[in-house]
Each structure stands twice: as C-alpha cells, then as structure tokens.
Design a protein that fits this description.
single chain; 192 residues; alpha/beta; Rossmann fold; 2 domains; 41% helix; globular; binds NADP nicotinamide-adenine-dinucleotide phosphate
C-alpha cells in the first residue's frame, strides 16, 4: 500500500477489520469499510473515513475507483468487489478462493494446486477482464511483523479491540461465538 491510496476493508468491526483499518490508516490510506449501524461509531473511532451500513446500503452503489479491496465475505461479495476497483487495482481475499500462487507458496501437492487453480479460475478471469489483480492471502506467522506491530501498539498508533475472553476449557463456546459472525473485534481464548 502507498500513502494516499483508497482501500476498502470489509467487515471493519470484526477481528481482522479492526486491525486492518488502523494499519491502513497508519500507512496513509483513505479507508472505507462495511458494518451494521451498531458498529459505526467503533469503526470511525479506528479511523474509517467512509462507513457503509451493509444492512441498508449496497457498497457497490457508494464506492468507486478504489486501489485495494480486502475481501472477507462470500463469493457474491467477492465479485461485487471487483466493480469498486479502478483499473490496476487489487482484490485481496482472505476468505477464498485460494489461487495458484498460494499453492506455490505453501508448496502444495500438484493435485491440490490444480484444485486451487480451478476454484479460483472464475474470479481470476473476471479480474483480468477488468484489468485488476486477484490474490488470496493466508496469514503467515512472522516474528518480525509481530515486532513491528508491537512497536505500533506500544506507541499507541494502533489499539486492540477485544469483544470477549473465554477460558481455555470454553474453547468450543469461543469458536461457536466467532462462527456466529457478530464479534466486535477479537475473541480471545485464555490459555493460562
Ligand atoms: N486468510 C486468513 O489468513 C484469515 C485470517 C483471519 C480470518 N480469516 C477469515 O476472514 C473472515 C473475517 O474474519 P474475522 O475474524 O474478521 O470475522 P469476524 O470477526 O467474525 O467478523 C464479525 C464482524 O463482521 C461484521 N459483519 C458480518 N457480516 C457482515 C457483512 N455482510 N458485511 C460487513 N460486515 C459484516 C459483523 O458486524 P455486525 O455485527 O455489525 O453485522 C461483526 O462485527 C472470516 O471468513 C475468516 O475465516 C482469514
């Protein structure tokens, strides 16, 4: 990302979105996000410049010519995301489908690489025809990135948003809570 770019981060009130908004703002981006009315104040407090209530508005009607979209929703939203990007923009999805590049990165067996190629062929073709890029991103543990994020955290540049903390014995309950899709920020399982 470069200073001055426009990025659309879906579900800004979620575990990924609450951090992604702050990091994109730190990098100098203008940030648009989606959430429901109850979380508008939260995402604005994290720095979101444009907030679309996904229950009453279609982001496709509001957002235009974005440089980057971080997709975390379903296939329909993924396709719509292509239409808010400008030519040369990038659609990055963390909710799939995985693409051949990802298969290379994780050194997947040939058959798995083929499945990834097939699963993502539709969105890659549509992206190409609009002159935008598509890639799938899966979190990789990185000590150096975590150290950098810790520095931003300690300096007060970014803050954590924690919805609920569950005891280790209640991990199943925590997972069910996350899967319900209503979390505001992160859900923590306390190991010790
Ligand atoms: N590839 C990776 O490395 C990676 C890493 C982490 C997560 N993920 C994936 O990324 C996705 C998001 O994860 P997450 O932990 O951020 O999710 P999450 O915390 O469960 O997201 C919940 C939030 O999303 C909002 N929301 C629900 N439906 C929405 C919609 N249609 N449009 C906009 N906002 C909506 C909710 O707000 P309201 O209550 O206001 O509706 C809620 O605050 C999941 O599919 C997860 O599996 C991938």
């Amino acid at each position: 990302m470069q200073k001055g770019q426009r990025v659309f981060i879906q579900a800004g009130s979620g575990g990924v979105g609450t951090f992604a908004i702050q990091l994109a703002k730190h990098l100098g981006a203008t940030v648009a996000t989606t959430t429901s009315a109850a979380n508008v104040a939260l995402v604005k407090s994290l720095g979101a410049d444009v907030v679309v209530d996904y229950k009453t508005q279609d982001f496709e009607d509001v957002l235009r010519d974005y440089d980057v979209v971080l997709n975390s929703q379903d296939g329909e939203t993924l396709e719509k995301s292509l239409r808010v990007l400008k030519a040369g923009g990038k659609l990055i999805s963390i909710s799939g489908p995985p693409d051949p590049q990802f298969g290379q990165e994780i050194d997947a067996p040939a058959f798995v690489k083929l499945v990834m190629r097939l699963l993502s062929s539709g969105i890659r073709r549509k992206a190409r025809s609009r002159g935008v890029g598509y890639s799938f991103l899966f979190m990789k543990a990185s000590g150096s990135k975590l150290r950098e994020i810790t520095r931003l955290f300690d300096a007060g540049v970014i803050r954590r948003v924690i919805d609920r903390v569950f005891a280790f014995e209640s991990t199943n309950e925590a997972l069910a809570y996350v899967e319900a899709g209503r979390a505001k920020g992160k859900v923590v399982v306390k190991v010790k």
